[in-house]
Amino acid sequence: MNTHCAWCERDIRNTVHAPYCCARCEKKANRALAAISVPPTPQQRETRIIRGCLVSLVAVITVTLGLRILAGSPPPPDNILMAQSAPSPQMDRNAASYKAGQTARRQWNRWLSGQYGERRKGALYWLNAVAGQHARQCDGTVEFALGCFDAHRHMDRIEPQFAISPTFRSGWDNP
Question: Which end of the chain, N or C, is less packed with Cβ atoms under 10 Å?
Answer without folding.
Answer: N
